[in-house]
Amino acid sequence: MKRHILRALGAAALLLAAATVAAAKPWTWQQLDLDKITSPAQVTVFYSRDGESAADAGGENRISLSAQDIPAVVKQAFIAVEDARFYAHRGVDPIRIAGALLADIRSGSAREGASTITQQLVKLTHLSGEKTLARKAQEAWLALCLERVMSKEDILAAYLNAVYFGAGAYGVEAAARTYFSCPASGLSLAQAATLAGIVKSPSRYAPHLNPEKALERRGWALRAMAENGFISEEERAAAQAEPLGLRMSGRAERDGWYVDAAIDEACAALGVSADELMNGGWRVYTALDPAMQDSADALFADDSRFPEGDGGVQPEAALVAMDVKTGEILCMEGGRRYEVRRGFNRAVQMKRQPGSAFKPVSVYAAAVDMLGCTPVTLLDDSPRAYDGYTPSNASGVSHGTVTLRQALARSMNQAAVNLLDRVGIDAARLYAQKLGIELSDADRSYAIALGALTEGVSPARLCAAYCALGNGGAAVEPHVIRRIEDAAGRTVCAFSAQSARAMSEESAYLITDVLREAASSGTARALAGIGVPVAAKTGTVGETDGGNRDAWTAAYTPEVAVTVWMGYDEPDRHELRRGVTGGSYPARLAAAFLSGNAGKAGEFAMPEGLERVLLDSRSLEGDMALPMLAAENTPRACLLSEVLPKGCAPKQRSGLWQRPERVGTLYVQPDEAGRPVVSFVAPDSVSVWRVMRVEEGGEREVARLTGAKGDYLSFTDKEGEPTGYYVIARQKYFEELGQLVEAEPSPMARFRDETLFERLFGA
């Protein structure tokens, strides 16, 4: 029986060993390469769109030191933090592994690390960051091999030269110069402990990003040094009492905002941490346009292009420019100044309410694409209440019946909300989402017509939504990376454009054509003089006291789209001063950028399903507005070239410019008080009738009457003695243009005070 048990246990052990070998896959392991250890680690490089000029990723800031040149206090700090038994093990520490395993069992998690400094060096130079049994086994094997051919001091030096400290610094020498403006030989105990605390996660513990967490990690490192006998308790306490004492050296990296975004995007695509990415030897090819970035940098360096500060605090700003057809981000500014690597990037990370800049990509997109509205669709710009929500126009003036073109180009709030009521909130949400804008479930109110969103939108996402309007209705995904290659030159990731149709080409062009008017004479007219076809929309989010929280401009040419935002990071504490709207500083900044970066494309291409028709603009005005084709006699000033779907042009031609008809019969009769009442039947609808009174010494106009054809018009003369009258019909529409077009005067009608006999029996 005992023999059977032993055989069974032996068989199980063999099976376990076989399974372990199968999982570890030793036949796939690479050999130890000392060149990778003794030579600097391959640093990830970011390339601009031309594939030649590398964008500065904060990249290879590395100064290698020999083991003799690294101070003892630095070595001790890292040994205490990363591998206290470094001098006792041979590359792998079974005691530490057992301790970590026991700690994990007790905590019910797998958080304790057991990698030695030797293993970490092997991982940095030979292996990927994947967490698999095969990778860990290979790491342990290579560590054992390395310890047989390299001394402990050289291994420690190689590790300290290879590890990434954040802020573009590789190795302890570069880190000392970057954070404290001194060589590693000049580091104090507190500074050495600070650097030792960073390497676990530079993005979390780097002192320029998270000083509080950096101090916590420094304290932990100092305690570890004391516990391992490297320093006394008094030295620990003295070092702990020191301030961080950062003295960041060097200027902000060129293209910093852009490369920061590329780092985040590459990490997500590769499934690695930022620290692993920077040491991975990747080649990241981006869509960065260096000339555009230089142009944007110069604009953001010019303080005169930004409004004055509130309470001495300057407002922030962001800019993002994209290729209209692909959504590739060509350049970006994540703030007024680039001072911290991988800091808050407003261009891609910030979400703010877009205000009226949201209208074209939500309610108007739905109205045109789903309901078939056109630029001459008539809307109501009058105040209404919806569930207690009563919007008003920024000017405080209501315009009554207006066209869709007028409402959008002039950013009429009341018309937009009234249109949303026709379109439906769900439809407006759907189109915003189709264009790539994420909405909260709470965004189901009439306020979304004016861009009042729960979470808001980033400049990059808003810019991408406008790209779809400029490229014929295809939604694009904003991105900075074109492809990524590994250290061997193999393409491991490439962006694949998955363009989804968000609206028809015709709908996109109709909205674009309206927004071209917004850029020429509407709220975004600051862009009128850039010299290329441009469409634009502004947005302003106001405060109750007259100041503003956010100011936006989104603009695009046939090739390039740009979105500019200005405001404060803490809008509850500061606000843009009165008068700083999307149409002011942001629009002027967008215009300055596009003036030199708009591309060389011609006009926006009009789809086959649309046609240009000549309308009478006067037919679109007033409460009785009705779109009509221009007639032969329509004045040039009233000719309106409009884009409409084929077959949707009005059939009726304008009759507003006919010559007025002469009044043939004029009546003058007394009222009950004996005063003359002049009356006639209106012979047309295009005239204003001047009632002329003839009296001794001449004649004068005493009234002007208006009406439609067939109306009975009258005027009671309450002045002086009875006299004669006649009427002159004047063409009212020509008169509004400053032109005098009149009919022949009516026959003279005289009035005399009749006797009772004459009233009863006639003259």
What's the structural blueprint in terms of helices and strands?
Layout: H1 2-24, H2 34-38, E1 45-47, E2 54-55, E3 61-62, H3 72-82, H4 94-107, H5 117-126, H6 133-149, H7 152-162, E4 169-170, H8 172-180, H9 189-198, H10 202-205, H11 211-227, H12 233-241, H13 256-270, H14 274-278, E5 283-286, H15 290-300, E6 316-323, E7 329-333, H16 363-369, E8 378-381, E9 400-403, H17 404-409, H18 413-423, H19 425-434, H20 459-470, E10 474-475, E11 481-485, E12 491-494, E13 500-501, H21 505-520, E14 535-542, E15 548-556, E16 560-567, H22 585-597, E17 610-616, E18 639-645, E19 667-670, E20 676-681, E21 687-695, E22 698-706, E23 712-716, E24 724-731, H23 732-736, E25 749-750, H24 756-761
Parallel strand pairs: 1-5, 3-4
Antiparallel strand pairs: 1-2, 5-11, 6-7, 6-16, 8-9, 10-13, 11-12, 14-15, 15-16, 17-18, 19-20, 20-23, 21-22, 21-24, 24-25
Helix pairs in contact: 3-9, 3-11, 5-6, 5-7, 9-11, 11-12, 15-22, 16-18, 16-19, 16-21
Kindly describe this structure:
With 763 residues, the chain is of the alpha+beta class. Among the domains are: 1-25; 59-241, Orthogonal Bundle (Penicillin binding protein transpeptidase fold); 355-473 and 499-557 and 567-581, DD-peptidase/beta-lactamase superfamily (Beta-lactamase), CATH 3.40.710.10; 610-645, no CATH class; 667-761, Immunoglobulin-like (Sandwich). It is built from 24 helices and 25 strands. Helix 15 (290-300) packs antiparallel against helix 22 and helix 16 packs across helix 18 (413-423). The chain is elongated, with a radius of gyration of 39 Å.
